[in-house]
Design brief:
The chain is of the alpha+beta class and 571 residues long. It is built from 13 helices and 31 strands.
């Protein structure tokens, strides 16, 4: 989940431990002040019925590690991002103090928090099917007779390959979140848990000096076979069963991760290690912590307005793409079949709300304008043009060719553009005077100059005139239903030219920057330079864009059709 999407939070579900009444009251007051819904349950209660699909929800736990783990079980399957408020004493997982809760939540609503992915594991065994975020413990069951066998023998396999036999008190298969204490007890590594997709096999009280913890990929298929009776517990017993001799358990990374929200008010993982586990290479305080040095190999910073705007625009577009994909996946459901306009209304609103809020938080003095309305006035020479959903006809019919278009203008001229196609996860971007990019690759237009060898893209063609006149003269004409994507496909060399019958500023502002940066030439159908007019929403404005070398030939061909039509009219 993208952190910027959190700006659209409409509802909070809180799981509270019994000693968290005061923080819960403060949370209720905070949500009430912002007209955000709040529903709360005690630890152990189910949140079924509280989460409405399609409504942006934030999960909050108020308690210690146990409450946090309860939140994982409740929120992760529903893909609800979660933040932990630490009202416990020795908690390691929730890292925000109750006194910082309001400021931290405000940071989340501004889209300034981070969303970290935590790997979970999936466990299948006879009588047990569970998901956990910490670990699976397979341990010997103490015998009734003190002289009986006190160890367990476990055979381990990874992706079908035999790893070996573990003799000891048991074996733990842990995620990066759950590996810390267990790994330390076996002299193994400590794993930083955020955005870490691995599983660690840790032997418990092994009877061999040569047996060490083993780290495998999260997608690995780990199979453990017990020689005798053994206890099988997930996340400290939240799910458990008993294995008989010869039984097997299968463990792999779960498909659904946990999205943990981290703010600047969170204690860091390394501070938690120092404070709670006696991390030997630093003390447990945050005072005097040195700053990481700037180095020659650091990524270049974007300190200018336009460069920073490009970063923010891409983040906002990717965040807005998440709800668009979710709603798009439901367009044929019973919920929407009766009125497709509901799809566009909800999708437009979600997308515009996210993008507008992100820009307003980052650039409060910039004006923001979308297809629908002016959403923010500004005192700066900079203004933003948004098309939160270009290609609505495609969208409501389940077609993937739709896009989000975000442009920055300086004194009315487009200087930065981002176009994001959510279904393909393709992000086109450019700054005027720079290069054009598709994701991380530089793109450019083709160099074809022969009309007969070219591929054209067409926008709305009311009488079929462009198609009729140009189809036979070229290799063909395609129409994708999104003017922004047409200009980006021209920029990336997927077509040689694009024609649009009528354009509006929000349709083409971002695409113009990207196409020009890639080498395209953009005019009207007479060859006169295309005059971008931010304020003129009503007048139809034709646009003809080519790779450059093809331009004169295409203008001449289109003009010949216009001349022929005029001659026919005169007759």
């Amino acid at each position: 989940m993208h952190r910027r999407r959190l700006v659209t939070t409409e509802n909070v579900i809180a799981i509270a431990s019994p000693d968290s009444d005061a923080p819960l009251d403060d949370l209720a007051a905070w949500t009430d002040e912002r007209d955000i819904g709040l529903q709360s349950v005690e630890v152990g209660e189910d949140i079924d019925g509280l989460h409405e699909e399609g409504r942006d929800t934030l999960g909050v736990t108020l308690g210690g590690d146990g409450t946090f783990l309860e939140g994982v079980q409740q929120f992760a399957p529903r893909e609800i991002p979660m933040v932990g408020i630490n009202t416990g004493t020795l908690a390691f997982l929730p890292r925000i103090a109750p006194t910082d809760m309001r400021e931290a939540l405000g940071e989340i609503l501004r889209g300034q928090a981070e969303v970290k992915t935590r790997q979970q594991l999936q466990v299948h065994a006879d009588g047990l099917d569970a998901v956990g975020i910490n670990d699976v413990m397979i341990q010997h069951i103490p015998p009734d007779n003190p002289v009986d066998r006190k160890i367990t023998r476990l055979k381990a396999f990874v992706d079908g390959d035999y790893v070996g036999e573990y003799d000891g008190t048991g074996l733990a298969i842990a995620t990066p979140t759950g590996s810390t204490g267990i790994s330390l007890s076996a002299n193994g590594p400590i794993h930083a848990p955020d955005d870490n997709e691995t599983l660690e096999m840790v032997p418990l009280h092994t009877h061999s000096l040569g047996v060490r913890p083993l780290v495998v990929g999260a997608s690995a298929d780990v199979r453990i076979v017990s020689e005798g009776e053994a206890s099988l517990m997930v996340d400290g017993g939240r799910s458990h069963t008993t294995m008989d001799g010869g039984d097997a358990v299968a463990i792999t990374g779960a498909e659904t991760p946990m999205h943990v929200v981290r703010t600047s008010f969170d204690d860091t993982f390394y501070a938690a290690l120092a404070a709670k586990l006696g991390w030997g290479i630093r003390d447990g305080t945050v005072e005097g912590i040195p700053r990481a040095p700037d180095t020659a190999w650091d990524e270049p910073s974007f300190e200018d307005v336009v460069g920073r705007a490009a970063e923010v625009a891409e983040e906002a577009a990717r965040a807005a793409g998440e709800p668009l994909r979710e709603i798009h996946g439901r367009v044929e459901s019973v919920e929407y079949k009766g009125d497709k306009s509901d799809v566009v209304t909800e999708a437009d609103y979600k997308s515009e709300q996210i993008i507008g809020a992100v820009i307003e938080n980052e650039f409060p003095d910039h004006a923001i304008r979308s297809e629908e309305e002016v959403s923010a006035e500004g005192s700066s020479t900079y203004s933003w043009l948004l098309d939160p959903l270009d290609g609505t006809g495609n969208y409501v019919n389940g077609n993937p060719n739709y896009s989000i278009s975000v442009a920055l203008l300086d004194d009315g001229e487009p200087v930065m553009g981002v176009v994001y196609a959510p279904e393909f996860d393709d992000c086109f971007r450019a700054i005027a005077g720079g290069k054009a990019y598709l994701n991380d690759q530089v793109v450019g237009t083709t160099d074809r100059d022969d009309l007969a060898e070219s591929m054209l893209l067409s926008g709305y063609d009311p009488d079929g005139d462009f198609l009729t006149h140009c189809y036979q003269a070229t290799r063909g004409i395609r129409r994708f239903g999104s003017a922004a994507l047409h200009l980006c496909y021209l920029a990336s060399g997927s077509a040689d030219a694009a024609w649009e019958y009528d354009t509006y500023p929000w349709d083409v502002a971002a695409g113009i920057v990207i196409a020009r940066a890639a080498g395209a030439r953009i005019t009207d159908v007479t060859g006169a330079e295309y005059d971008f007019d931010e304020e003129n929403d009503d007048a139809r404005k034709e646009l003809l864009a080519t790779n450059g070398p093809l331009h004169d030939a295409l203008v001449a061909h289109v003009s010949s059709r216009a001349e022929l039509k005029q001659a026919e009219a005169d007759d």
